[in-house]
Amino acid sequence: xxxxxxxxxxxxxxxxxxxxxxxxxxxxxxxxxxxxxxxxxxxxxxxxxxxxxxxxxxxxxxxxxxxxxxxxxxxxxxxxxxxxxxxxxxxxxxxxxxxxxxxxxxxxxxxxxxxxxxxxxxxxxxxxxxxxxxxxxxxxxxxxxxxxxxxxxxxxxxxxxxxxxxxxxxxxxxxxxxxxxxxxxxxxxxxxxxxxxxxxxxxxxxxxxxxxxxxxxxxxxxxxxxxxxxxxxxxxxxxxxxxxxxxxxxxxxxxxxxxxxxxxxxxxxxxxxxxxxxxxxxxxxxxxxxxxxxxxxxxxxxxxxxxxxxxxxxxxxxxxxxxxxxxxxxxxxxxxxxxxxxxxxxxxxxxxxxxxxxxxxxxxxxxxxxxxxxxxxxxxxxxxxxxxxxxxxxxxxxxxxxxxxxxxxxxxxxxxxxxxxxxxxxxxxxxxxxxxxxxxxxxxxxxxxxxxxxxxxxxxxxxxxxxxxxxxxxxxxxxxxxxxxxxxxxxxxxxxxxxxxxxxxxxxxxxxxxxxxxxxxxxxxxxxx
Length: 529
What we know:
Structural class: alpha/beta
Oligomer: single chain
């Protein structure tokens, strides 16, 4: 189900993990008070991106439930790893940045309940425990429908946790409920907005335990991939937004802020209510892998929707590009992201390898150390699109996102007027349910950046996407970056050349970026605003 990432850096690996108990492992507590002594002491060898090995001794806290009234503690728990010795030198993690690394993929449930070491979180693609006090539950393992929608993270950020620990950062990995979980009564309890509510509750737990939990709770940096990247973006955009308050109270979340300092988002699957139009604008002329062409009438309708939406955003491109619209977005992507991406890639090759690559990809003109090409040639280079149309709100309710907006005992629902109007299942009313608009706002960072501009948002953003990634439109992350830039935020956004969904080819740079924006190791704090 997951799509593996291809990285252009040395693998990050662990050698034999040795552990010696320092005290009893921690456990969940209704008091929501972190036990600073409830750790095990572990040692792990971590290889950095330069190929150098580092022996890291760290304190590890097993799964801790982060809400007082969990629906399902199997997923509503987190693990904590804090380095105390690196290469024989004692380190103090008290003021270190906190990397909050989620492992959500496909809006599926993610659990750390059985984790025994750093990097132990993972996406549960089926199965799950029952809600507290309930009979055992089951999770429908949602196979991809005709459009292949699974959007699993593929572990793109799996190296980040290890590299962060080796850099002296605290690593906290939260679990979260996901869309496939249902109880013995057949009711879904992990659909929207469960995942973002859980991650906010995890942040509140961390911040409420300032002085007890290791790390600087004012310097939390979220990281996630695919749906996890969308949630990471949403977490950063919606800090302390009151629209989540009732959900957090129901869980008994800690009375603290859920704002975070910075965001790392890889190939975020977000802005779901507008994603179908953006997808067709981007990939509408590309055939499926079978060679079949998608319904061009539907594609045309959705492109028109995108044009209207994009015009209404009134975004300006980075680096003085000017207003972004459906007519010039191809030029913007080529100039701002795609040609620089190809240039970086080709510059990094040896002369002979570059010559070989260019001979095989004659659509690229290489001159004066820069790559140039057209948007049309780029689309041909990428080739087959991954998804049929509509890509996200499928007419037959087969998309994972249809399941994300399920409710009660209804597994899948439409979340756009166009999808509902053209429903082919005969199960719906040809209209979206009354609760859908509010849930879309709860799940979309653009809502918090456009309609309800949030002054408690993160101000530092690291956004990445593979140029060959057709799981969503390139417009999605570019719009997010443009809006943040227009608001004056610090945005570090680039695309990985020839990489697919879930790529993370510069994890070492991300770790360095965290130090830069937080001021870690320089005797000063990074600015929040």
